[in-house]
From TrEMBL:
This is YqgF/RNase H-like domain-containing protein. GO terms for biological process: rRNA processing. It comes from the Eukaryota.
């Protein structure tokens, strides 16, 4: 995808993500799905899925993409009350850490169950 001024913003971001994943020998990329508090899909969920599809098209074979529920991560990271713009900025970074911690914890549980049972049942 190109615009008159050169590569699209997404193409540049996708290339940067793919390059970083290769540099770090990452097996996958996690994208947060911003569901509503009651579990319904938000309008932003469609945007994340569209971005995931475009990233999937740009990514080398073998790079997995995981869409993970990010509900409440920012609120948990920020804590209660009102927050300054600076704190909100760091809160989003902390929320990303919480999301990744969630994913890694789930992966550890699945790996343990697979080692113990020889398979994982969902």
């Amino acid at each position: 995808m190109r615009t008159a001024g050169g590569p699209s913003r997404f193409a540049t971001q996708a290339a940067a993500i793919c390059s970083l994943a290769a540099e770090l020998d990452a097996g996958g990329v996690v994208l947060g799905m911003p569901y509503l508090a009651d579990g319904r899909r938000s309008r932003e969920c469609e945007l994340v899925e569209a971005a995931a599809e475009r990233l999937r098209e740009a990514a080398p074979t073998g790079l997995r993409l995981l869409l993970w529920d990010e509900t409440w991560t920012t609120r948990l990271a920020l804590g209660p009350g009102r927050h300054s713009a600076r704190r909100q900025h760091w809160g989003h970074a902390a929320a990303a850490c919480l999301l990744l911690q969630d994913v890694l914890g789930a992966a550890e549980v699945l790996a343990y169950a697979e080692r113990r049972n020889g398979r994982v049942e969902c």
